[in-house]
Amino acid sequence: xxxxxxxxxxxxxxxxxxxxxxxxxxxxxxxxxxxxxxxxxxxxxxxxxxxxxxxxxxxxxxxxxxxxxxxxxxxxxxxxxxxxxxxxxxxxxxxxxxxxxxxxxxxxxxxxxxxxxxxxxxxxxxxxxxxxxxxxxxxxxxxxxxxxxxxxxxxxxxxxxxxxxxxxxxxxxxxxxxxxxxxxxxxxxxxxxxxxxxxxxxxxxxxxxxxxxxxxxxxxxxxxxxxxxxxxxxxxxxxxxxxxxxxxxxxxxxxxxxxxxxxxxxxxxxxxxxxxxxxxxxxxxxxxxxxxxxxxxxxxxxxxxxxxxxxxxxxxxxxxxxxxxxxxxxxxxxxxxxxxxxxxxxxxxxxxxxxxx
Length: 357
Ligand SMILES: *Cc1c(COP(=O)(O)O)cnc(C)c1O
Prior knowledge:
alpha/beta
C-alpha cells in the first residue's frame, strides 16, 4: 500500500461505504414498504456527500439547518428537502424558499409559513409531529385533532403527514405499542376530516428493531435515517446492522510528543483538575495527539489500535501507546460515534478527504 503523506488531523471518508450503506438500508426498509429520507445534519452541509446520497438513491434529504439546504439547492441536487423542526419564525421565508417540507408542532409558526408561502406563490408541505413520550418536539396527542383543524384552514400550506420522533432526548423507544398508537391516531384523524395523509413518518435509526419485529408496520411508511447510513448501527442497543460498514469515517491524528512520564502529576493540583491518584506512580509512555476538545467529542473516539485514551484538553489528546510501535510523527486512527462525528464534521480544523477514489 502506498503511503500518502497528508496533513492531520483529518477525517477520511469512504464514499463507497456510505453509498453501500444507504442502498442497503433503502432495500431493508423497502421490504416493509417504508421509504426513508437520509438525514444529513451530521454532515454540516457537505454538498459532496449530500450529492453522493442522491446519486445512491435518496429521493429526500432531511437537515436541521436551512442554510445547508441553500447550499444543496445551489449545487442543484435533485431531491426533496425536509427540514427537521421545529422551524424558527425568524426563518420562515428561507424555509419556504429552500425546504419542500417541514416538521411542525406550533400553529403560530405554520401560520407564518402559510403567509410566506402565499407571498412566494408556492405550497409548503407540513408534517405534524406528535409527542409520543420522548418530550422533545411534538403536539400532545389530545391536541392533534384541534391542530389539524386549524392548519387545514390555512392557504399555502398542505398537511402531507403525521410523524413522531423518539430516542433522541430521553431515550424513549419506538416500541410496537408506540407505533401502533400512532397508526391508530392517524386513522382516527383521517376519518374525522375525511382526508388521507400520504406520509406517516415514524422515527429514525432507533426504529430498526421495531421494523424487524413487526410483520406489518401499520400506517408507518416513512422514516428519517441518519446514523445507520453513516455509522452502520441501529441506535437502541448500538448494534451493527448486518451488511453495513461501521467504518465509513475514520479520524486520523498524529503524535506530536512521545515521552516517558510519571503516571501521576506532580505538584499542588488545582481544584478543577482533581483526580484520583492512580496508586502506582510509575514511568510509562505518554503520547500527545494533535486533536482535542475543540474539534471532537473525545468520549466518542474508539482507537483502531490497542492504545488507551488517558486525557484531553482543547487541542491535545493524551494516550498510552501500550505495546504499539508508535513513534513521533506517526498517525493514530479512530472510529467515531455519532456525537464525535458531528463535532469533527463541524470543525474547520479537520481536513475532510474522500478516500474511495
Ligand atoms: C436527527 C434526527 C433524525 C435522524 O436520527 P438518526 O438517529 O441519526 O437516524 C430523525 N428525525 C429527527 C427529527 C431528527 O432530529
